Predict the structure.
Amino acid sequence: MGDEVIKEYFVERDNGNFFLAKEKADSPFFKTANFETVWNLQFEKTVKFVRKERATGFLHIEGFGKVYIKRGEFNLLKTFFNTLFKFTKQVSSLDGEAKAIMRLAELNIKTTPVIAFGSKTVFWKRRSFLVTQDVGDHPRLEHYFPQRFGNSSAGEDFKSRCAFIVSLASLLAKMHKGGVSHRDLYGCHIFVVETGSGWEFIILDLNRADVRKTVRTRWIVKDLSALAASVPSVSKADGLRFLKTYLGVSHLDENSRNLAHKIIKRIEKIKRRIRRSKEKDLHLVSKHGGALPENKE
């Protein structure tokens, strides 16, 4: 998403450090707000804490109801060298998440609407925030699928299972064709909403997402393997149906099979990592008498 799209949907404030959705610009709270006003807002509750530099929480603002604020502090020198040596672009602000959300909105894919975002840089230190509207409480894909379809192998439930997989695969194909790779597409990052005619999906937590003209195969594999590895009760038949729908084919040719092999290989790698993580947690629980030690970061 280019600067022209930002100008179309957002009002620039505070010398370019703060962007506010145009339809929210005259609201009582944001009418006189600047970067520091939003940065210093106190959470009613912290819902995610990643080291002392990254936190997400919610609060209620008059005229908006419940909103989520994500804040991050970034060392740009560290980010530069991590990008250089890890051969992967590292997150250096939350502006990218705002742009990914807006791109999904352009594609008519549901996500968390952006109210405001901003970044302020002093030397090599950058502070960044993102304010999004609450979309309600819905089941996450990793829980919904096994609970709703875990034992369905015939009849109407099986037909619904197939329709669900087709619907999800079509959505993700649309996302990737639209140039958005999520890069953290686990089942916990998709809300499932039942409708009268099927399902809607809400894509969450786009802080690692990337927007380009085309999504490289590497990132397609990363997204689809993370999704498959994190959702229980997914069968081989489910995976095949998903991939055929995603690719828009009735059978897999050589290129499609190569893609499938790459996805399967990465799924196995992710599952090994998950097992090692669980084994480590069990070891810590045993070592500390039945409870994990507190994270002191």
User: Anything to note?
Assistant: The chain has a mean pLDDT of 87.
